[in-house]
Amino acid sequence: MNTSGKNILGFNFSSQGETVFFAKNPATGYKLETAYHEAIPKEIDEAITLAENAFTLYREKTGEEKALFLETIAEELFQIEEGLVGLCAQETGLPDGRLKGELGRTTGQLKLFATVLRNGSWVDARVDTADSNRKPFPKPDIRQMQIALGPVGVFGASNFPLAFSVAGGDTASALAAGCTVVVKAHPAHPGTSELVGKAIIAAAKRCNMPDGVFSLVQGASIAVGQAIVRNPLIKAIGFTGSFRGGKALFDEAAKREEPIPVYAEMGSVNPVFVLPGILKKNHQTLAEGLSNSVQLGAGQFCTNPGITVLPKLTESNLFEDTLKNSVAVSESSTMLTESIQDAYNRNLEKLKTKREVASISIGKKADGQAQGVAEILSVSANHFLKDKEMEEEVFGPSTLLVRTEDKSEIMDVAKSLNGHLTATVHGTQEDLEEYADLLKILERKVGRLLLNGFPTGVEVCHSMVHGGPFPATTDARMTSVGTAAITRFTRPICFQNYPDSLLPDELKAENPLNILRIENGNYVLP
Amino acid sequence: MNTSGKNILGFNFSSQGETVFFAKNPATGYKLETAYHEAIPKEIDEAITLAENAFTLYREKTGEEKALFLETIAEELFQIEEGLVGLCAQETGLPDGRLKGELGRTTGQLKLFATVLRNGSWVDARVDTADSNRKPFPKPDIRQMQIALGPVGVFGASNFPLAFSVAGGDTASALAAGCTVVVKAHPAHPGTSELVGKAIIAAAKRCNMPDGVFSLVQGASIAVGQAIVRNPLIKAIGFTGSFRGGKALFDEAAKREEPIPVYAEMGSVNPVFVLPGILKKNHQTLAEGLSNSVQLGAGQFCTNPGITVLPKLTESNLFEDTLKNSVAVSESSTMLTESIQDAYNRNLEKLKTKREVASISIGKKADGQAQGVAEILSVSANHFLKDKEMEEEVFGPSTLLVRTEDKSEIMDVAKSLNGHLTATVHGTQEDLEEYADLLKILERKVGRLLLNGFPTGVEVCHSMVHGGPFPATTDARMTSVGTAAITRFTRPICFQNYPDSLLPDELKAENPLNILRIENGNYVLP
C-alpha cells in the first residue's frame, strides 16, 4: 500500500518540515521508498492544540459512542489487513503470520475496551446521599466518578509494530478513557504507522468524532518526543521501549511546570526460577520450553526470560545439555532494526568480557542482515550477586543461567532482584510449598507472577498486569495491557449537592446506565 | 498529659540527637516545657528498617486483623481524649470544641477504613479463568488484585493536628492498605504527635502487630523529611501542607534512583462563583455564608474560599456591603503558629501593594498573639486576568472579590484558573442552565465541584475527592480524604496459572471472602 510520508494533524495531512527519513528493511538492509517528513514544532503544536479542542467534545461522548468508535477502528484495520501486513513485514522483518496474529490482538483489544465502555462500571461510581438530620452537621450529597485527564501523548514501540504502536494498548485505553491522542510514530515503521493512523482517522470520520481526536506525528529525532512531553496541554504520556528512553521522558515530565504522569514500560529481565523437584522430573521439557520462550520473536519481547535460576542437581546438567543442544541447532531470525541487533551483540559482549560469565551455547546464523543469533550464558549465583550489571536487560534471544549452590542462594538471588514485569517459578506442589517464601519475595518485585509456564505471551484480559516496580516501569500502580489500563488516563472528581438533572448519567439517582456503584458504602449491582 | 520528647522507633523510645526544639503556645507566645529531640539519621534509618521488616509480616494480615487494629487505635485515642485535647489546644491555639470534633473525625475515619477492610472488595479482584481449547493459543488462568506498596512516609500537617496529622487520613489509609508507616511529626505540635503515636503503639501491641508497623520521628529541620524521602526502603509519601514544601518533596522523590509516588496536597484558592440569578435573590445570606466560610478556623482550611467571583449587578453592591459589615465586626482568632500568621500578613501586603487591589473591609484584632484578622480585598476581573500572582493562596481568613463585567468575563476567569481542590458555584436552576459551560470548564480544574454551598468542610466518605489537578496536588489521580485514598498505597499484581491453594483468599475459586469481583469480564457480587 502507498504511504504519503506526511504527518496526520487531525483530519489533515502535513509535511512542512525539510528533514526526511526512510524506513529500512532490516532483512535486506535496503531502505524503502517513501520519504517521511519529520514533524516540525509548529506541526506538533497544531496536533496538540487540535487534541485539546477536540477533548472538550470527545470527553462528552457516551460510552456507546466511544465503543462504536473503537470497533470502527478495528473494522478499518481489518479492511487493510493485507496491505498493512505486507508493508509492516518490509519495515520490521517480522513474518506475516506473526503480524496477522498481532493485528488480531490489536483489534481484539479495541473490541475488548468497547465491551468495558458498554458495561460502563469502570468509572468507579460512588454515591453518598444527603442526611439533613445528621448531628452535629448535616451530611451533604456527594457523588464520585472517574473522568478523562486530557490530551495524551503516546510513543509507539518498535517491537510490536501493531499491538504496542499507533493503535496499540496505550491509544486504545486512552481513547476508551475519553482522552484525545497524539501519537509519535516509531521511526522503525513509519509506513505501518501512517496506514494505521489513516484507519483511525477514517473511523473517526465515520463516527462523527471531532477533528483532533487523533493525530500522528513522524520523527526520527528525540526533539519530536520532547516537544510532545513539554507541551502544557498534554496531560499524560504512554511509552513502551528502552529504560533510557522511558526514564528520559519521565525526567522531562517531572521537570515541567505542571508535572504529568508518565507510563513508561521499559522492559525487564523476567527471572525464571526452576525448583529442584520439577527439575528432576521434567528437565527435558523445561529446557525445550525455555529455549522456545527465549527465541520467540527473536527475543524481542518485553517479557523475554533473560535470567534463569537453577538449583544444584545432577539433572541441572541434563537440563543445560538439552538447552545447549536446542539452541545450537536453532536458526537465527531477523531483528527489528540494525541498531537493535547491534545493541544485542554489544550487550552480549559486555557480559562475556566478565571473567565469571561463560557462553555455553550459540545458535546458527541464517542468511540476511540484522540476524539475532541465540546464545546461552552462565554464571554462578555467587558472582551474579556481586554484579548488578548482570541483571540488565539484553534485548534479544539469550538467557543467563544463574547456578545456585543451595536454597539460601536461590533466596538471595530473589531478594537481590530489582523490579521486573514478570517472575516465573517452575515447581511441583512440594517445591512450591517448600519455597513459599520465594513466592512472597517475588510478589514485591513484579507485576505478574506465573507458575509452570513461560512469561512470553501477555494475555489481553481484565486481570492482566503488564507493569511492575521500577525499573520495569515508571509507575507500578498501573498496567499497560488489559482493561485496567484505562485508569491510567483518568482521575476522580466528585460533585457535591448537584441536582439530579445536572449529574452525569453514571451518578443519577435512577442509575440509568445500570452500572455497579458504591452507594452509601454498599456495592450495588442493578 | 506528660510527653517524653523522644522519637518512637517501633516499640522503643529514642533520643540520641542533641538538637532539641520546643512547642510554643501561639496564643501566648510562650514556649512549652518539653524538649523534643530531633531524630538523627541513624534513628530515621532505624525506624525505616523496622518498617521494612514489619512490612513483610503486616502485609500478610487479614482484612479483619487490620480492621481491628484501626478500631483499636480509635479506642486508644478516645481513652486519652481529655489530655490530648488539652495539650493540643496549648500547642495550636485551637479551641477545645474544634479539637474534640477533629478527634471524632479522626476516629470515625479509622473506623470507616475498618468497614472497607471487612467488606474486602476494595482490592479490585479480577479473575479470568483458563480455556485450554481456545485457538490459536490456550487461554491461561490469570487473577489480579491490589497489594500494598511497602513502607510509607507520612508528613503531619499543622492545620489539622489530629485529622491530617499522626493518625490522620494518610496514616489511616496507608495502614488500611497494608503498608507500614513512618510519620514525620509536624514541629508545631510535637506533643500532640507523641501522644497520638503512643496510642497507635499501644493499639499495635494489643493487636499483636509487628514491631515497626508504626514509627514517629520528630524534627524541626528540613533534613529529617529529606532523610525519609531519600531512603530507598520508603515506597510512597503522603503530605499535606504548603506548595513549597510539597513540591520540594515531589522533586526529591523524582530524583531518587527509584522514583516513588508523592501524594502532596498543597492547598488551593477554591474559587467561588456567584451567578446573577441567585445573587439577586439571596445576596444577604450568601454574603453571610461566605463570611463564615472565610473565617472558619481562622481561615486555616485547605478548602478556604480565597477567590469569590461576582457578576455586575446592583445586588453585588448589597452583597459586598453585607460582607464588609460582617467582617468589620468579626473578632480575630489565634492562628496555628507565629510563622503562619506572619505569612498571612505578608501575603496580604503583597496583594495590597498592587495598585488594582483594594482592601474593602478588615476585622477586629482580639487580644493575644498570632491573631489572624479577617480581611476582604477586591479587584476587577480585567486586572485579575492579567496577574497570575493573584491566584496564589493566602492562607488565612481572607478572600479576594473578583468583579466581572459580563458573562464572558466570568468564563474567562474560569478558563484562566489553575488546578484547585474545589470550585463552588452558587446559582438558581436557571443560572445553572445558562452557565452549563462554566461547570464544564471547572470540571477540568478541580477535584470537587459543589453547588450552593461552601467548600470548607470535607466529608469523610466513600465519594469524597480531596485532591485535584496541579498545583492543588502532585497527583490528581488520587484523593487524600475518603475511602478511595487507600489505593494511593497499593498496586496491582496478577497471578498466572496458580493452584487454588496458593492464591490469596481474595482470588480463590470459591470466593471465600465474598467480595465483589470481575469474573471473566462480569461484575459478580456474591
From TrEMBL, chains A, B:
Matching InterPro entries: Ald_DH/histidinol_DH (IPR016161), Ald_DH_C (IPR016163), Ald_DH_N (IPR016162), Aldehyde_DH_dom (IPR015590), Aldehyde_DH_Superfamily (IPR050740), ALDH_KGSADH (IPR044151)
Source superkingdom: Bacteria
An MF annotation (GO) of this entry: oxidoreductase activity, acting on the aldehyde or oxo group of donors, NAD or NADP as acceptor
Residues in coiled coil: 425-452
Keywords noted in UniProt: Coiled coil, Oxidoreductase
Keyword Cell division listed: no
Protein name per UniProt: Aldehyde dehydrogenase (NADP(+))
Aldehyde dehydrogenase domain residues: 17-458
Organism: Flagellimonas aquimarina
